[in-house]
Design brief:
There is one protein chain. The chain has about 375 residues and is of the alpha/beta class. The protein has 2 domains: about 190 residues, 3-Layer(aba) Sandwich (Rossmann fold), CATH 3.40.50; about 170 residues, Rossmann fold. The strands form 2 sheets. The protein has an 8-stranded mixed β-sheet with strand order 3-2-1-4-5-6-14-15, sandwiched between helices. A 7-stranded mixed β-sheet has the order 9-8-7-10-11-13-12, sandwiched between helices. Strand 14 and strand 15 form a beta hairpin. The two termini are about 25 Å apart.
Length: about 375
């Protein structure tokens, strides 16, 4: 199979979908790998490293036009939509639930589009999302600490405090992978941390994982509102796989918060879990609403591209190999996790969650395969 690695064009996105070692693995398996010139530069992988791995360096037109399988990191932007064609496979993060226009474009392209974030194992894990969730969770207290600085509009609070001066209070909403990593880093930075999580069983696990260093609170709307009042930083870390993120903090709730407090919305690529959130970029990451600073960068791991690219390729490569070795249809039939990741196929939307979010019609992948 001919596999293309294209350069990301999303603002401040420096990750690449495949490392040179990953390209070498595919080449050794008998596949042709096309790498758009400059695709790996932002992650520290020069064109020469891909050439040495046996990949062919091509321009953007060749990469898209010749590829059977296109691997990316972020969703295709509008200028890339016309490049997709029937019979082609796109494998990348998509986050379609909050973006009906992109959903429509991918469906109409006729391509088989598989979303990293909805590839799901039988036990409910999201293996391709996990490393980026870990990165985003570990980044959240770090970027939030910067936003708390007075020069950025924040309260002017140091996360760790000082002897005789209390540390900052960090509230993490959601105790999954993002929330757990965010809480651990915030604790390591010396903050006072509260984790709000709806699953009591998960709270029991967090007590063991965090060593009773964090306050653990059962999530209810009243509990969220109560914790906002004393928070210096609130990290939104709630995920519903494939669906739009639930809105947990309303604009009215901002009036409960301190002037210069910070909201970090890690769920912004799924629509955001704060009503006042809107996507921002690494170049212009924050804005203020009603005195509360919002950090809503939609591709947080893109700011640490080397770490992120290595982590991403480690988990995606086995699935890329499966598609390349067997062909998309056979791979989707064989692999239930991959089948769950299919978002569009044969000109139809195949995700119930995206359909529920957009009101669009959908068809089950199994029915399309049977036809």
């Amino acid at each position: 199979m001919r596999v293309a690695v294209v350069r990301e064009i999303k603002t401040d996105e420096h990750r690449v979908a495949l490392t040179p070692d990953g390209a070498a693995d595919l080449v050794a398996a008998g596949h042709e790998v096309l790498v758009e010139r400059g695709a790996g530069a932002g992650s520290g992988f020069p064109d020469g490293a891909y050439a040495a791995a046996g990949a062919a360096l091509v321009d953007v037109e060749d990469a898209w036009d010749r590829a059977d399988l296109v691997v990316k990191v972020k969703e295709p932007l509008a200028s890339e939509w016309p490049r997709l064609r029937p019979g082609q496979v796109l494998f990348t993060f998509l986050h379609l639930a909050p973006d009906p226009e992109l959903t429509r474009a991918l469906t109409e392209s006729g391509a088989t589009c598989i979303a990293y974030e909805t590839v799901q194992t039988d036990d409910g894990r999201l293996p391709l999302l996990a490393p980026m969730s870990e990165v985003a969770g570990r980044l959240a207290p770090q970027v939030g600490a910067g936003a708390l600085e007075r020069s950025r509009g924040g309260r002017g609070v140091l996360l760790a405090g000082l002897p005789g001066v209390p540390p900052a209070r960090v509230v993490v909403i959601g105790g999954g992978i993002v929330g757990t990593n965010a809480a651990a880093i915030a604790l390591g930075m010396g903050a006072e941390v509260t984790v709000i999580e709806r699953s009591v069983e998960r709270l029991r696990q967090l007590e063991l994982e965090l060593g009773r260093r964090a306050r653990l609170v059962v999530s209810t709307p009243a509990a969220v509102r109560r914790e906002l009042g004393d928070a210096d930083m609130v990290i939104g870390a709630v995920l519903v796989a494939g669906s739009r993120a639930p809105r947990l903090v309303s604009r009215e709730d901002l009036s409960r918060m301190r002037e210069g407090a910070v909201l970090v919305d890690v769920a912004i690529d799924q629509g955001g879990c704060f009503e006042t959130s809107r996507p921002t970029t690494h170049r212009d990451p924050v804005f203020t609403v009603d005195g509360v600073v919002h950090y809503c960068v939609a591709n947080m791991p893109g700011v640490v591209p080397l770490t992120s690219t290595l982590g991403l390729t480690a988990v995606t490569l086995p699935y890329v190999r499966l598609i390349a070795d067997m062909g998309a249809e056979a791979a989707i039939r064989r692999s239930a996790p991959l089948r769950r990741g299919v978002s569009t196929m044969a000109g139809q939307l195949t995700s119930r969650e995206v359909a529920d979010a957009s009101g669009a019609r959908w068809a089950a992948v199994e029915d399309l395969l049977a036809a």
